[in-house]
């Protein structure tokens, strides 16, 4: 059996040495400008062989190669958009590059809308949450993506102030999923966003898990191994993570709730 995995982070930093001894690491780098140019010329000769040689502008190819930023798939997509009326010109290439940039900006806007939904709910602003839910849906954001952000908000920002909020947000997500993200699901999103906006807020669990993960990473770097998860004496008001080294020394981290 062969297992193939990809990672965007440094494999030498994110994986342990023992694992690296048993795997083959293949590092993929961005293509050079020359590689992209060869790729484009090869694509033209095979996929766009109907183009006349005089209709292909080298300057346009250079523009595409430059804006591809070492990404072959992006270069081929720009090439396809740049061929207009069976010709490749600097003007058509520039138009394609601008269109690709607008698509990227549109994606960024949708992400910002989802972020604004969470911030509005966290600020206990029902009007703001409804506005940004409406804006995200109007811009073409997938309702399921909005429901996912609302679900995350119920845990991160409301948390223990009202644990039932997580159940309601989860029901919202399942309802949107059941309705197949069509317009009938919009009212479900609106109702849930308003409800969460009116609830008290408590992000202690979100902060606690982040502190716990950071502490465990630091302890692992020091070759400490966990002995106990919590100390029952103080379970009512705090969690105590006890870590021991190979010398049986104890290091305690207290996470208040």
UniProtKB/TrEMBL annotation:
It comes from the Eukaryota. InterPro entries: AAA_ATPase_RarA/MGS1/WRNIP1, DNA_pol3_clamp-load_cplx_C, MgsA_C. GO terms for cellular component: nucleus. Coiled coil: none annotated. One of its GO terms (biological process) is DNA-templated DNA replication. Residues 124-222 form the MgsA AAA+ ATPase C-terminal domain. GO terms for molecular function: DNA binding; enzyme activator activity; single-stranded DNA helicase activity. PANTHER family: ATPASE WRNIP1, WERNER HELICASE-INTERACTING PROTEIN 1 FAMILY MEMBER. This is Recombination factor protein RarA. It comes from Hexamita inflata.
């Amino acid at each position: 059996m062969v297992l193939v995995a990809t990672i965007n982070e440094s494999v030498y930093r994110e994986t342990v040495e023992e694992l690296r001894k048993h795997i083959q690491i293949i590092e993929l780098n961005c293509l050079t400008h020359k590689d992209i140019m060869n790729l484009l010329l090869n694509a033209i000769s095979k996929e766009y062989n109907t183009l006349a040689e005089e209709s292909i502008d080298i300057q346009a190819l250079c523009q595409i190669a430059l804006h591809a930023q070492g990404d072959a798939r992006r270069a081929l997509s720009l090439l396809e958009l740049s061929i207009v009326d069976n010709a490749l010109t600097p003007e058509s290439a520039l138009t394609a590059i601008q269109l690709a940039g607008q698509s990227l900006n549109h994606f960024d806007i949708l992400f910002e809308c989802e972020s604004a939904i969470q911030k509005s709910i966290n600020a206990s602003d029902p009007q703001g949450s409804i506005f940004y839910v409406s804006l995200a849906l109007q811009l073409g954001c997938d309702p399921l993506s909005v429901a996912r952000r609302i679900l995350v908000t119920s845990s991160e920002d409301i948390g223990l102030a009202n644990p039932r909020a997580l159940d309601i947000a989860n029901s919202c997500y399942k309802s949107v999923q059941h309705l197949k993200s069509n317009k009938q699901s919009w009212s479900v999103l609106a109702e849930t966003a308003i409800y969460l906006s009116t609830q008290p807020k408590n992000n202690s669990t979100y902060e606690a898990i982040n502190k716990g993960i950071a502490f465990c990473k630091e302890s692992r770097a020091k070759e400490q191994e966990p002995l106990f998860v919590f100390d029952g004496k103080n379970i009512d008001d705090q969690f105590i993570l006890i870590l021991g080294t190979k010398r049986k020394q104890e290091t305690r981290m207290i996470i208040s709730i």
